[in-house]
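[Discussion] Sanity-checking designs against the backbone

I'm trying to build intuition for which residues belong where. Below is a structure token string of 172 positions. I'd appreciate it if someone posts a full sequence so I can compare it with mine line by line.
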């Protein structure tokens, strides 16, 4: 079933700033997995697809994919749990549900912090930072970005570290 979808190819496209191409790569696999009735990998693919779709400004579509991921993701798949929560937190914040957004974002950070997935942990922190930005909490946002930066640097994720640095430079 791993051949049904390439998460790695989609991740590369997201890093390259090409969420539409990432969506194409994920969408075909997502549809095949749904047709096969596969659930666990479908949950992860839906979460990643939600990221790509949200990056293109389609919050409603991304939210529906978060629902799919939430329904099909195994409770012990903490990374996937964190991914869909990061997207959902951003969507909730965008819609003005700031307290709920913060709670969901914090849940995602807490879940992924229990793993060794440094990049996804950093990504969850950046999602939380966006929520803090919308809540007009610049100190909390800066702290979250700084924590993400340290995780990216520790992992050697140069592109993500550069993006975190850029966010910090834009802050007061």
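Best answer:
Here's mine. Compare freely.
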């Amino acid at each position: 079933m791993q051949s049904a979808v390439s998460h790695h190819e989609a991740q590369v496209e997201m890093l390259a700033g090409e969420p539409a191409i990432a969506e194409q790569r994920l969408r075909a696999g997502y549809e095949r997995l749904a047709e096969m009735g596969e659930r666990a990998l479908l949950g992860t693919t839906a979460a990643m697809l939600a990221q790509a779709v949200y990056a293109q400004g389609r919050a409603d579509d991304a939210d529906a994919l978060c629902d799919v991921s939430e329904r099909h993701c195994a409770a012990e798949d903490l990374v996937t749990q964190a991914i869909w929560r990061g997207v959902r937190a951003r969507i909730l914040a965008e819609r003005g549900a700031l307290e709920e957004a913060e709670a969901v974002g914090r849940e995602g950070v807490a879940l992924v912090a229990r793993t060794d997935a440094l990049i996804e942990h950093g990504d969850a922190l950046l999602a939380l930072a966006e929520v803090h930005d919308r809540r007009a909490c610049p100190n909390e946002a800066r702290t979250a970005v700084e924590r993400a930066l340290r995780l990216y640097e520790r992992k050697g994720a140069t592109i993500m570290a550069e993006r975190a640095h850029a966010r910090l430079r834009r802050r007061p």
